[in-house]
Amino acid sequence: MLLRKNIIYGAIFGVIIGFAAGFLIRGVLVKMELKDAHRQISDLQKQIAMIKTAIPPLRSLAERCDIYIGAAVERSLLDISNYAYTLKQEFNILTTENALKFGPVHPSPDAYSFDDADYIIDFAESHGIRVRGHTLVWHQQLPNWIMQGKYTREEWINILRKHIVTVVGRYKGRIYAWDVVNEAVSDDGTLRDNVWMRNIGPEYIELAFRWAHEADPQALLFYNDYGAEGLGVKSDAVYNLIKWLLEKGVPIHGVGLQMHVSVENPPNTQEVAANIKRLSDLGLVIHVTEMDVRVKTPPRWEDLVRQAEIYREILKVCLSAENCKAFVMWGFTDKYSWIPSYFSGYGAALIFDESFMPKPAYYYIAKVLIEHLTLASYDQELKFQ
Fold first, then answer.
1. φ/ψ bin of 235: left (φ > 0), alpha (ψ from -120 to 50), beta (otherwise)
2. Alpha-carbon gap, residue 116 to 105, rounded angstroms
3. Exposed/middle/buried for residue 310 (C-beta within 10 Å: 0-12, 13-18, 19+)
4. Spatial CA neighbour of 77 closest among 343, 338, 320
5. Cα–Cα nearest to 143, from 99, 105, 117
């Protein structure tokens, strides 16, 4: 049985490697006629489509590997057929990209706007996709009534408590995990100077987790941050903060590692593995929550291959850690990525291109999942021999 699986998977990836080699050969023929170039591009797209049908969807592979694979989702994009189809076909978890941030969901003191979040969660439930709620407490995307608010400390506490209890309570039992507090640690390791810190004090972090847990005792509660995936001043500060919260009995269940990186400055995988281990040793679940790997545009083939390698290596680190249970990207198609708007000259950061065609990163991710699954099957067979 295992031998037959290996033959099948070997054949699939033989085709993939052949395709990649063919693409590289074509890439050196820079003086070809424009008409011939269009024909070859069309042929390549057909080859990709054929290869794609030979590989199970990522969600199927991930489920068998006991991991979630997913993407951040914007409500308006779910009305685009290619977007919705790819999402439900390939992923088994999604993150509410903007719909549940404070500003969009709570635009005025006595008004909430749940339509976008409701639509996303209904979509997820109808397709067997779990939901990560993002985010309850953050220093950005806050409404004017918060940013310009003049309240007493007690009033600030009541505002935050009411917001968390209302939002989490509405989706009790429907949201699998919440990014409760987002980016509360600065790059130098100190607690970030934000509206909550200034008006409530550092206690706002502990209070937020307690209120979220009271509103939905079954949801997993995460601290989420960027630039803390490896080892260093910031990741040390995040570790110490979470350790301190746990020692106080605060209900925090996991840490989200955002993983917004570039091909020029990829994460050190050994450091990421060490960081995941020390967080796991605290009894925490780890999610990669917002991964994208930006490249200079227009992207060169070698950049896309390097990008694929970075995705592959981080997924391998996650799969090798017992407590790493989700691998989520900040979107999935380059057509709707935040990167070009925030990083001038960069883009192409995700695993599908602007035409919803899989990029090398997609196949590298699939290969890692298949290899992990094959190895697990092999180990299982050895146990029964």
1. alpha
2. 9
3. buried
4. 338
5. 105
User: Of 90, 97, 183, 229, which one is the catalytic site residue?
Assistant: 183
Residue with tokens 């260093």: 232
pLDDT in tens, 135-187: 999 999 999 999 999 999 999 999 999 999 999 999 999 999 999 999 999 99
- Let me know if 290 is a catalytic residue: yes
Q: Taking 70 as the threshold, does the pLDDT of residue 134 lie above it? A: yes
Quote the Cα angle for 253-259-265, to 5°.
Answer: 150
Considering only CA atoms, which of 359, 365, 368, 364 is closest in space to residue 301?
359
Give yes or no for a contact between 15 and 54, defined as CB atoms under 8 angstroms apart: yes
DSSP state of 127: T
Q: Is 371 a known active-site residue? A: no
> How many angstroms separate the CA atoms of 385 and 382, rounded?
5
| Beta strand ranges found along the chain (DSSP E) | 68-73, 93-96, 130-137, 177-182, 220-225, 254-257, 260-262, 285-296, 324-329, 346-347
Domains of the chain: 1-54 (no CATH), 57-383 (3.20.20.80)
Q: Please state, in angstroms and as integers, the Cα–Cα distance from residue 101 to each residue in 98, 107, 134, 156, following that order.
A: 5, 10, 6, 18
Q: Among the options 290, 302, 313, 381, which is catalytic?
A: 290
Angle at 311 between CA 219 and CA 5, to 5 degrees: 90
Question: Which amino acid type is present at position 235?
Answer: S
User: Using 50, 70 and 90 to split pLDDT, how confident is the model at 2?
Assistant: very low
- Choose among 369, 357, 382, 366: nearest CA to 49: 357
